[in-house]
Amino acid sequence: MDVPERVTVKEVGPRDGLQNTAGTVPTATKIAWINQLGKTGVSYIEITAFVHPKWLPALSDGAEVACRIQREPGVTYAALVPNVTGLARALEANVDEVAVFMSASETHNRKNINKSLKETYPVLDEVIRTAAATGKKVRGYVSTVFGCPYEGEISVERVKAVTDRLLTMGVYEVSLGDTIGIADPRQTNEVLTELTRDFSTEQLALHFHDTRGMALANTIVGLTHGITTFDSAAGGLGGCPYAKGATGNVATEDLLYMLEKMGVSTGIDFSRFIEAAAYIDDIVQQPLPSRQLSMYFREQEEKRQGRS
Fold it and tell me: Which residue ranges does the record assign to the Pyruvate carboxyltransferase domain (predicted)?
């Protein structure tokens, strides 16, 4: 199988994972977890979002988190921002880079950020220009690339148009989101075949949710197309508050295990990472779907029983 020798895994658990958890995670716990993640070899952690607390109350402590974490050399600590107000707060907290977001679906975009696609572009353009003026890189997220809970199938042409607009405005990379975990390998192949005709693989990342257990299969398709950046969340945390039934992101440790078995390097220490996933599993008030985490807990229990 012709796949890249090395890929970048971007850990989005502290933001995308915790924004929709059942209970509130204490600020000190978030900080301790991010510090633990930073020591695993990950090169990128999305630590929070600077969104109005009314919309994401679980992340209302973003500034405190960003200011109090222990930053490891070589790790990018990023945050999601919706507008220049959020950007100003992110800059004050000295995040390394920011991410902007919108949807390929008109309806989901309105539900998520209360704006049409046309109305969203100027807002994000201002964020991107302002961030660039301060020397900060900007990443772009496009949601509902593979399907929308309100509109169903989204045309590849629409995805192309949104991706092109974001790249033209100055984001260095667009993360293509399967927000409701509806993608399958054939669809992923078709979408990437079209997109890689117009954009380089360095400009594209993949962000799969595992609602239907297809995320790793879709990741393999992405690898065969030469994609080298993938988003994931420890434990499989996550879900979209504006997409009913959407479960979490692909679990980082499941992704790492697969990549390691395939001979694809990530630079992340699996043993250290699984411990970080186990830490947050013990905190959140919901079962996490990670298969490798389940194996880890089973092995730990067997060791305890063997000692008793």
Answer: 7-274
Distance (Å, whole) CA 217 – CA 200 = 22
Contact by Cβ (8 Å): 285, 21: yes
**Count of CB atoms within 10 A of residue 36's CB?**
18
* Residue 128 pLDDT > 90: yes
Q: Assess whether 240 carries a catalytic annotation.
A: yes
**pLDDT value, residue 24:** 83
pTM: 0.96
pLDDT in tens, 3-61: 999 999 999 999 999 987 767 899 999 999 999 999 999 999 999 999 998 888 999 99
Q: Which of 75, 240, 268, 284 is catalytic?
A: 240
- What residue spans define the domains of the chain? 8-307
Picking from 16, 14, 2, the residue whose alpha carbon sits closest to that of residue 178 is: 16
Domain boundaries 8-307, corresponding CATH code: 3.20.20.70
- Give the pLDDT band of residue 252 (cuts 50, 70, 90): very high
Residue 266 DSSP label = -
For residue 23, the tally of other CB atoms under 10 A from its CB is 10
